[in-house]
Each structure stands twice: as C-alpha cells, then as structure tokens.
C-alpha cells in the first residue's frame, strides 16, 4: 500500500477509532499533524523523519552538555 498525505478530516477520524494519546499511522506520510486537543502540531511517530528529528534534538542537548 502506498503512503500518502492524509487530510485533517481523515486524521481526525483515525484518532476517533484508534485513540488520542500518540499519533502513529503508517499509512500517513505526514510528518507533522494537528494536535488532537488544543492548538498546534504534533509528530506522526510512524514517520522515520520524526525519530531522526527527536534523535537530533537529543544529540544537540547531549553535545551542549559536554562542550
């Protein structure tokens, strides 16, 4: 199955079925998606870019601590 960018309405329906806490959708190629509650964006944890992004942030924090 090919990955594609989902619309905000499809993301909302997916959250209603699967839950709100983490957004983990392998079929959705979006990196950032609207938050379930409130204002802003959150990451799609099924997207590999999300993990690279988080590891880069942790790497910067660790490097700043030692240098």
From TrEMBL:
Keywords: Membrane, Transmembrane, Transmembrane helix. It comes from the Bacteria. Residues 26-51 form the DUF5808 domain. The chain crosses the membrane at residues 45-63. This is Membrane protein. It comes from Neobacillus ginsengisoli. The lineage of its organism: Bacteria, Bacillati, Bacillota, Bacilli, Bacillales.
């Amino acid at each position: 199955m090919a990955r594609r960018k989902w619309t905000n309405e499809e993301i909302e329906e997916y959250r209603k079925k699967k839950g709100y806490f983490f957004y983990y959708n392998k079929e959705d190629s979006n990196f950032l998606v609207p938050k379930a509650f409130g204002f802003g964006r959150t990451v799609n944890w099924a997207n590999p870019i999300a993990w690279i992004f988080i590891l880069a942030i942790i790497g910067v924090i660790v490097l700043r601590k030692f240098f």
